[in-house]
Specification:
Elements lengths: L11 H11 L9 H11 L6 H24 L3 H19 L6 H21 L3 E8 L2 E8 L7 E7 L6 H13 L4 E5 L5 H5 L10 H12 L4 E11 L2 H11 L5 E5 L5 H13 L11 H6 L4 H7 L16 E6 L7 H10 L5 E6 L14 H15 L1
Parallel strand pairs: 3-4, 3-5, 5-6, 6-7, 7-8
Antiparallel strand pairs: 1-2, 2-4
Helix pairs in contact: 2-3, 3-4, 4-5, 6-14, 8-9
């Protein structure tokens, strides 16, 4: 059976980018009709990332303008809905543009709209700054509507995501289960990368430990019930952190990684042979890792392996993966599951019939978000 909708059949990266936006509709942060208007203008121009930026940003500016109009009328809830959609469109537009001032400004536009949208639609979600090695890591704090100290999740994103998107497709569902969420941009992610220039590091227990310290100090948090979670590349970061910092009470890999060097050895072959089954532009990995070229990246990635540490991950562990994942084949998730030392561990692989069989459930994000939120609710 056909397992996902490819808007641009000849361009996997663009199809994935479209689905990223479309799936935000489930949380009121995208309109399928508006995204289709963008897509119709892009058809026949697959691979033109300049045009991709233009069409997404044009729509974002239009929708932001509608939000301003409603704000002037005193309709703050309505303006907030427009601002959240504009934020997602700005972010989708900048994803495939190489590092530049234009990219940073487009992301700043995303941040501006996102903050205005949250203030009007989700006032319990507030900005946070987590102290980290002489600076801070930017985050959003989703305070669940519960009484007394409650469980909490520290949520990291992936190679080309940002905390704003994590709030929408993961954080909101988790908070609905009575669990606080710190959606944070760690080194090499989102705002920390774009506006602070902090590259990725293999020893993610350091930023994860800083995040734990921040949440554990809050009176509304039960410090004995703090989980760490990662999405996509975060499926390496979170298990690494939980294996090294045993203060975490549970760990979720939303997309299981085991050997990130091996994963990129495979992806590099695809890229250099002209293959299309890639999810990020060529500049992405060197930028995230803070390296000048792919050779230097591959050298740095030699440390991004879980073989020698997974056995030390002893807290309850959950890994969710799609059987048709072409970005991170399901074998990586199975190897991670086998290596994890926890007695309480679960690997769930979603099929095309169930929905969510692609990378991190990009074909049906709501399925993945609710499965993970339920596991956290049951476990914490």
């Amino acid at each position: 059976m056909s397992h996902w909708f490819e808007y641009f059949p000849s361009n996997h990266m663009w199809s994935q980018g479209m689905m990223f936006g479309i799936e935000m509709a489930g949380w009121g942060a995208a309109s399928i009709s508006e995204i289709d208007q963008i897509g119709q203008k892009l058809k026949g121009h697959e691979g033109d990332n300049e045009l991709w930026w233009k069409e997404w940003v044009d729509m974002a500016r239009r929708i932001e303008g509608f939000g301003d109009d409603e704000e002037a009328r005193g309709h703050r809830l309505t303006s907030g809905a427009y601002y959240l959609r504009a934020a997602v469109y700005y972010f989708c537009g900048e994803r495939f543009i190489a590092p530049s001032e234009r990219k940073w400004q487009t992301y700043r536009d995303c941040l501006r709209c996102f903050a205005k949208g949250l203030e009007r639609r989700y006032p319990r979600i507030t900005r946070a700054e987590v102290p980290y090695e002489g600076t801070t890591l930017p985050a959003w704090w989703l305070r669940a509507d519960v009484d007394g100290p409650a469980p909490t999740v520290v949520m990291f994103d992936g190679l080309d995501n940002a905390k704003e998107m994590s709030v929408l497709f993961g954080g909101i569902e988790i908070a609905r289960r009575g669990i606080h969420v710190l959606a944070i941009d760690g080194p090499g992610q989102g705002e920390a990368l774009r506006l602070q220039g902090i590259p990725s590091r293999y020893d993610y227990e350091v930023p994860a430990g800083a995040a734990y310290d921040w949440v554990a100090a809050r009176p509304e948090v039960d410090a004995r019930r703090v989980a760490v979670m990662g999405f996509s590349m975060g499926g390496y970061y979170a298990p690494r952190a939980a294996a090294k910092d045993h203060r975490f009470a549970a760990c979720v890999a939303w997309g299981g990684h085991f050997d990130y060097h091996e994963a990129w050895t495979r992806r590099r072959r695809i890229m250099e042979s002209g293959g299309t089954k890639i999810s990020a532009p060529n500049f992405q990995l060197p930028w995230v890792l803070g390296k000048p070229d792919m050779d230097a990246c591959m050298k740095k990635l030699e440390d991004y392996r879980l073989q020698d540490v997974a056995g030390d991950l002893l807290c309850p562990f959950f890994c969710l993966h799609g059987e048709n994942d072409t970005i991170v084949p399901v074998e990586f998730a199975r190897r991670l599951y086998e290596a994890v030392g926890a007695k309480n561990k679960t690997l769930r692989v979603l099929t095309a019939y169930e929905g969510g069989s692609e990378h991190c459930q990009e074909d049906n994000r709501q399925v993945g978000a609710n499965i993970i939120a339920d596991w956290l609710g049951d476990t914490l």
